[in-house]
C-alpha cells in the first residue's frame, strides 16, 4: 500500500475527474567525479511504485482535518522532466515538458495538465514552478490510477 497525500483538487479526486498526480522524484544520486557516471543510491517512493500497486489517497494527511478520500490501483507510472528556459535576448521564457528526452507539444502538455486537474498548462506550470522552482529542470513521476 502506498499513501498519496493531496492538498488541492479534493473534489476532482473524489469524483474521479482527476485520476493522475505528478510528484517530484526524490531519488538520491551519486556522480563519480572522474567518469561522471551517475549511480542511484536510493530509489524514491515514486520510483518504487509500479502498476497494480494499491494506493490510498488522502486529503491533508497528518493534519487535524485529515481524510481518506479513496483506495485505488496504480494503472501507470512514468517519468517526465519539467523546466523553464529563457534566452538572454528573450523577453519571456518558455516552460517545457520532456518525455523520454523529447519535448511534448503544447497540445500534449495541455492534456497532461487537464488530466491532473488544472484548467490548462499555464496553471500547471504556475503551480509546479511555485512549488519546485523549474529554473533548474527536475524529474517528476506521473502516476495514474483506476
Ligand atoms: Zn525517483
Topology:
Elements: E1 2-6, H1 10-15, E2 20-24, E3 28-31, E4 38-42, H2 45-48, E5 54-59, E6 67-85, E7 94-99, E8 102-103, H3 106-115, H4 121-132, E9 138-145
The protein binds zinc ion.
**Order of helix and strand elements from N to C terminus:** EHEEEHEEEEHHE
Low confidence ranges: none
Number of domains: 1
Mean pLDDT: 95
Described by the principal axes of the CA atoms, the overall outline is globular
Instruction: Name the helicity range.
Output: 10-25%
Q: What would you call the structural class? A: alpha+beta
* Backbone CA Rg: 17 Å
In DSSP terms (H or I, runs of 4 or more residues), the helix count works out at 4
Number of strands: 9
**What hetero molecules are in the model?**
zinc ion
Proportion of strand residues: 35-45%
Distance between the termini: 15 Å
Provide structural commentary:
The strands form two sheets. Strands 1, 2, 5, 6, 7, 8 and 9 form a seven-stranded mixed β-sheet that branches. Strands 3-4 form a two-stranded antiparallel sheet. It has one domain (2-145). The model has no long low-confidence stretch (mean pLDDT 95). A hairpin with a 2-residue loop joins strand 7 and strand 8 (102-103). The longest helix has 12 residues, at 121-132. 22% of the residues lie in helices and 41% in strands. The protein is of the alpha+beta class. Zinc ion binds next to helix 2. Zinc ion (ZN) binds next to helix 2.
